Amino acid sequence: MPQFQFLNRPVFSPTSCVLCGATDVPVIDTGVRRDVIGHIYLCCQPDITNPNTGCFEQMAHVLGWVPPHVHQETLDVIANANEENENLATELANAEVPLVINEGDLKHAFEAFLSEHVQAAKPARKPRAAE
Ligand SMILES: [Zn+2]
Fold first, then answer.
1. How far is Cα 51 from Cα 44, in angstroms, rounded to an integer?
2. 17: CA distance to ligand 1 center in Å?
3. Among 36, 44, 75, 101, which one has the highest count of C-beta atoms within 10 angstroms of its own C-beta?
4. Which of 65, 82, 106 is where one domain is finished?
5. How far, in Å, from the CA of 42 to the mean position of ligand 1?
6. Mean pLDDT (whole number) for 45-52
7. 27 phi and psi angles, rounded to 5 deg
8. How remote is the CA of residue 6 from the centroid of ligand 1, in Å?
9. Are 18 and 57 in the same domain?
């Protein structure tokens, strides 16, 4: 089993990423060495503010992994949503909900509803047949 190691730059031949050939870049040393190739390095970009990604990040992306800055942004969104949820829950718990409908208003609203909707739902009368 390879022992992966982060290096600021490859140190052994061929001193480049085995996939893209990038040199003098941060790499993951796979710990694997092949006689024909030499050390097998994969380039990477540990600087989360750098939008350029290395082969390692691209492979991780294929697996559905997100870069650290995206992960942190997601955690921030969740933290803000949780805080807003707590604030709204507190606001709701402290709210005084006024009772705006009394029995008379409710009866009047119900009658108005029936008048409007029941009248509209009645089928039209058929005209009387001529005698
Ligand atoms: Zn590469």
1. 12
2. 5
3. 44
4. 65
5. 5
6. 76
7. -140, 160
8. 14
9. yes
